[in-house]
Amino acid sequence: MAIQTINPATGAVLKTFDPLSADEIDAKIARAAETFTSYRRTTFAERAGLLRAAADLLDAERRDIAVTMTTEMGKTLASAEAEAAKCAKGLRFYAEHAEAFLADEPLDDPAAVGASRAFARYQPLGVVLAVMPWNFPLWQVTRFAAPALMAGNVGLLKHASNVPQCALYLGDLFARAGFPEGAFQTLLISARQVEAVLRDPRVAAAAVTGSEPAGQSVASICGDEIKKTVLELGGSDPFVVMPSADLERAATVAVTARCQNNGQSCIAAKRFIVHEDAYAEFARLFTEKMAALTVGDPMAAGTDVGPIATEQGRVDLEELLADAVAKGATVLCGGKSQEGPGWFFPPTVVADVTDAMRLHLEEAFGPLATLYRVPDLDAALEIANATTFGLGSNAWTNDPAEQDRFANELVAGAVFINGMTTSYPELPFGGVKRSGYGRELGAVGIREFCNQKSVWVG
Ligand code: NAP
């Protein structure tokens, strides 16, 4: 894939970048490794000051970087600005909390292990490669970078090939904030060039946010090299609606949960599983609200849904939909790609989905929702869990016993009851099954790229 800015709203190629040569990559890894030897000794207060400076720059430049995001991947300008604001907040969160998250953890009873004192200490691993996707071009990187840098690691960023200007901005942001040269560098490289970086002995670990094939490739290379990985991969989150739910509110949130970021979010609700007593009303409300969204120029203030980020992304959606329709699915709204320039795909609701359809199992990365009717909670759980993924999940019910069952029995990295799955700096984020392993964010996330060292003092 060429490293290019292509405006998905028009299809125009705006800028092409040359990938780094092997020598240039080597120089950047050398700089990272050299920087780590001193950066790891900086204090939490020093790192926090740098992270806060990055947050201040980001706040000041919010509008400009939002325009770049929208131009490169098509999210609405309002959502791009909100993403930049969320990143500044995330940077400040780690500036404030990292020291406490990584404080020594003393053993209550050191005598039990024959010590006068014993504790766990969290220390940085070294140079970490982050392989990142385009869908939240700033946030995905920030939620890796903020904890990694606060822990004393240094980062190399291989961003998606369609967001090179966002990638360059991020490297530049941390440099201008005052981080030492080499603490966080962008590598403009192709996916094929990732293996050499992973096999370099100066690189200690890798984080991947992206598709299953990307995760499989990085994890197998790192497995071969015995290097730590955290994988944040795809999702096909269920959104279960029970009769006791506030259906109007559930339908409103369902639309946002499916269509935010033009439907291209790993934690978007993708499968809507509705109890038969609520089905007719929920289906009506949901379909009406989906059909009422404004699709168009992502720079325009009134737009709800912009284009799909890549031409292939839209083809994938069209193929999933065609397969379902050919096998008997019913399209309740949308379903027909917009003619003309740009890769627009309308909010679409599909009912009568069966397990013979690809849409039943595969991730629809765009504003394409499937509706299921179920007789009871057990049937809802069965469909909800009948996926190879396990990232987020949503359940709508005001019955405490049902809330408890969903919290216990949805097989996913997160369960949101009467709300939309969202990533918060305060909460661990990640998946199970083919959605990956390891966690980002929260206290758990910052420890992933640490050596959890046991210290025993006699
Ligand atoms: P993608 O094609 O896997 O790309 C993600 C990143 O991986 C890009 O930087 C890409 O580089 C790189 N990459 C692709 N194949 C690779 C390989 N074989 N070896 C090394 N690097 C490789 O995914 P995407 O289409 O950008 O993103 C959509 C997917 O990401 C969806 O499945 C979505 O659910 C998932 N996602 C998950 C999370 C999460 O937190 N769990 C968050 C966001 C997105 P190139 O661009 O150069 O190919």
Please explain how this structure is put together.
- The protein is an alpha/beta fold.
- The chain folds into 2 domains: 3-234 and 432-457, Aldehyde Dehydrogenase, Chain A, domain 1 (3-Layer(aba) Sandwich), CATH 3.40.605; 237-386 and 392-417, Aldehyde Dehydrogenase, Chain A, domain 2 (3-Layer(aba) Sandwich), CATH 3.40.309.10.
- 42% of the residues lie in helices and 19% in strands.
- It has a 7-stranded mixed sheet, sandwiched between helices. The chain has a 6-stranded mixed sheet with strand order 7-6-5-8-9-17, sandwiched between helices. Strands 3-4-18 form a 3-stranded antiparallel sheet, with no helix packed on it.
- The longest helix is centred in the N-terminal third of the chain and has 25 residues, at 77-101.
- The protein is globular, with a radius of gyration of 23 Å.
- The mean pLDDT is 98.
- The structure holds NADP nicotinamide-adenine-dinucleotide phosphate.
- NADP nicotinamide-adenine-dinucleotide phosphate is lined by residues 1, 131-135, 140, 158-161, 190-191, 194, 209-211, 213-214, 217-218, 232-235, 266, 363, 365, 391, 431, 435-436.
Strand and helix layout:
Blueprint: E1 3-6, E2 13-17, H1 22-39, H2 44-60, H3 62-73, H4 77-101, E3 105-106, E4 117-124, E5 127-131, H5 139-150, E6 154-158, H6 164-176, E7 184-186, H7 194-199, E8 203-209, H8 212-225, E9 228-232, E10 237-241, H9 247-259, E11 269-275, H10 276-291, H11 311-326, E12 330-333, E13 348-351, H12 358-361, E14 368-374, H13 377-385, E15 394-396, H14 400-409, E16 416-417, E17 436-437, H15 442-447, E18 450-457
Parallel strand pairs: 5-6, 5-8, 6-7, 8-9, 10-11, 10-15, 11-14, 13-14, 15-16
Antiparallel strand pairs: 1-2, 3-4, 4-18, 9-17, 12-13
Helix pairs in contact: 2-4, 3-4, 3-6, 4-5, 9-10
